[in-house]
């Protein structure tokens, strides 16, 4: 049903979101220079006004108010009217696109060239959606504008490049990380929107249960040791790190970070941008950090054994080290470090807490519906608890742009490294399910099941966690 209301990007880009809502129109066809719109306010005066505004022949088709509202909310996102003056300060397509993406909460913008067209997709709440199609002859101009603003070489089209753009409006300033990639039909560019506003980032708001929050706050009070956060790309690890740094940041501590990229700017924290092409990598910067009299060090990611060894060394010499690592669970982090060649006794003596996290979309409060759960809706390897016999599903309404979801929430697995676990690590004993159950430590799977029971998210969002 939802797909019936989806309009192609070639049509939605013919008018702005403001025009669609103001005139209550949705474009459904463009043939030989004339445009066909659906509207619930068909009149001769509207047709005449649109003809002048768009400088095209216009045809109007009557539609019910209910259906038209659905078309509007599925295909057009309303702009924040408090930002309208910023949005209109430039007629430049690129500038407008960046501001639109910022105000509708997009994290990334993808420019993708193909044989006959070039498309622009925006990632919102973790999912990509096509927003614009650009003609092949206009695409190089837009790409060159991006590259010039990011300080990249416009003549170099054969090699990947990375850069940064700062956008300033009347009310705010934000950074954009630019990454180019040569593909078969031209350069693909991805823009990552980086926020300078950390006012919304608070540990209490991220998704910890009350017990998990207490455990995590206790672990970050230690003056030394390592705090590791694991999870795949886009699982919110960096946001958790920044919320932690924000809590630890005060006038009596020296905090140093090495990041790639610097996603948020924190006042009072000394942040360093990684530049591997000139030798400024994680390991060498960490070595320098130790001569900078630090109290707390944040390493963007432990990617190799050199960085892992330097992080261990920093923790052993009396510093608190925070970092991220790519593993599937909190306990798998220990296996990963052992595989890297770190001796188990060093891991046991430095690791304070191991955290794993994922991001799941939250069901829209206005339209979610309760349904009876059946066994075949779960992964075949998962035995659902008896009390999980009902679940809520995504429906879609105007409030959530007919996606059925609104916002995201992090779910965690937090394992504090206690004396029994230190012995497990030293003995390289990697089966700890019984220990977790006895000490009421919730795994990612257990937290996912709880969110299903509470009706916060849908089974589709946590399916992968249940099958692990």
| Rg measurement, Å | 25 Å
Helical content band: 25-40%
Sketch the major β-sheet.
Answer: 7 strands, mixed
Overall structural class, as computed from helix and strand content, comes to: alpha/beta
Beta-strand percent range? 25-35%
Give the termini separation: 32 Å
Using the alpha-carbon principal axes, give the shape. globular
Q: Could you tell me the mean pLDDT?
A: 89
- Total beta strands: 18
Strand neighbour order, sheet with most strands: 12-11-13-14-10-15-18
The number of helical elements comes to: 17
Low-confidence segments, given as residue ranges, are 81-91
Characterize the structure shown.
A hairpin with a 2-residue loop joins strand 1 and strand 2 (34-39). The protein has helices spanning 9-12, 17-23, 44-54, 65-75, 84-87, 93-103, 139-149, 210-219, 237-248, 282-289, 305-316, 332-339, 344-350, 419-426, 433-438, 444-454, 459-467; strands at residues 25-31, 34-39, 57-62, 106-113, 118-124, 127-134, 161-168, 173-183, 186-194, 225-230, 255-259, 270-273, 296-299, 320-325, 351-363, 369-372, 390-393, 405-416. The chain is 32% helix and 27% strand. The longest helix has 12 residues, at 237-248. A seven-stranded mixed beta sheet has the order 12-11-13-14-10-15-18, sandwiched between helices. The chain has a six-stranded antiparallel beta sheet with strand order 6-5-4-9-8-7. The chain has a three-stranded mixed beta sheet with strand order 1-2-3. Helix 10 packs parallel to helix 11 (305-316), helix 13 packs antiparallel against helix 14 (419-426) and helix 16 packs antiparallel against helix 17 (459-467). It has 468 residues and is of the alpha/beta class. Residues 81-91 have low confidence and may be disordered. It is built from 17 helices and 18 strands.
């Amino acid at each position: 049903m939802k797909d019936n209301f989806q309009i192609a990007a070639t049509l939605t880009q013919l008018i702005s979101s403001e025009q669609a809502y103001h005139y209550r129109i949705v474009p459904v066809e463009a043939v030989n220079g004339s445009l066909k719109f659906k509207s619930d306010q068909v009149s001769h005066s509207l047709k005449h006004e649109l003809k002048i505004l768009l400088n095209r022949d216009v045809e109007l088709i009557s539609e019910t108010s209910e259906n038209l509202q659905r078309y509007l909310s599925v295909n057009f996102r309303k702009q924040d009217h408090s930002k309208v003056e910023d949005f209109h300060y430039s007629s430049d397509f690129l500038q407008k696109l960046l501001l639109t993406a910022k105000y509708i909460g997009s994290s990334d913008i993808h420019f993708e060239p193909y044989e006959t067209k070039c498309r622009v997709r925006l990632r919102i709440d973790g999912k990509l959606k096509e927003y614009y199609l650009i003609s092949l002859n206009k695409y190089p101009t837009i790409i060159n504008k991006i590259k010039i603003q990011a300080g990249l070489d416009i003549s170099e089209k054969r090699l990947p490049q990375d850069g940064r753009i700062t956008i300033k409006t009347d009310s705010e300033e934000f950074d954009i990380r630019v990454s180019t990639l040569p593909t078969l039909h031209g350069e693909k560019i991805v823009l990552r929107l980086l926020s300078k506003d950390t006012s919304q980032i608070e540990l209490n708001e991220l998704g910890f249960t009350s017990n998990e929050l207490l455990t995590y706050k206790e672990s970050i009070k230690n003056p030394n040791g390592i705090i590791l956060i694991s999870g795949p790309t886009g699982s919110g690890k960096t946001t958790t790190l920044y919320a932690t740094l924000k809590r630890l940041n005060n006038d009596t501590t020296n905090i140093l970070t090495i990041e790639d990229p610097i996603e948020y700017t924190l006042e009072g924290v000394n942040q360093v941008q990684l530049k591997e092409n000139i030798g400024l990598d994680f390991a060498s910067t960490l070595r320098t950090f130790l001569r900078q009299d630090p109290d707390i060090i944040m390493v963007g990611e432990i990617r190799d054994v050199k960085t892992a060894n330097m992080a261990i060394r920093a923790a052993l010499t009396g510093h608190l080290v925070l970092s991220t690592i790519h593993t599937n669970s909190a306990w798998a982090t220990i296996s990963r470090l052992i595989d890297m060649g770190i001796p188990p006794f060093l891991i046991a003596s430095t690791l304070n807490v191991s955290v794993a996290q994922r991001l799941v979309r939250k069901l829209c409060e206005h339209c979610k519906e309760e349904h009876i759960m059946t066994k075949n809706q779960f992964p075949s390897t998962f035995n659902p608890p008896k009390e999980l016999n009902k679940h809520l599903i995504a429906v879609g309404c105007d409030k959530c742009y007919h996606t059925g979801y609104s916002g995201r929430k992090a779910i965690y697995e937090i394992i504090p490294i206690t004396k029994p676990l230190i012995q497990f690590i030293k003995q390289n004993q990697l089966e700890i399910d019984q220990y977790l159950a006895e000490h009421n430590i919730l795994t990612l799977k257990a937290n996912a099941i709880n969110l299903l029971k509470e009706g916060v998210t849908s089974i589709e969002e946590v399916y992968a966690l249940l099958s692990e």
